[in-house]
Amino acid sequence: MRFMMFMLPNLSPDEYVEPTAEAVTTMGKFNEELEKAGALLDLNGLHSQAEGARVTHSGGKSTVIDGPFTEAKEVIGGYWIIQAKSQDEAIEWAKRVPSVQGDPFTIEIRQIQEIEDFPPEVQAKLRGA
Question: What dotted CATH number matches 2-126?
């Protein structure tokens, strides 16, 4: 199973903390553990929401809102995509994420939906049958 782990660093939407060399080294060690275990599929940090945009679709129209998004309650600072045998295993990896941008912080885990998770008729459509 594939899981996405989101880093929620407990920062306000307009806050951005440039990672220190020490933070990068600490997180790099964790990322190396994931890689050595064969669990790491992809990872990246994200730029500030202030540099982002949201595109909202409603009634056949699209509206673009430039960041920061003051109504946002949580900021996603980065992500990992990992391979794990179960959600419990993914949780164990999330428990090991080091604190590099302050305390508290949250790791949200979401299983990635695979084609096999859909009903057979939907799988057939997705496969072009």
Answer: 3.30.70.1060
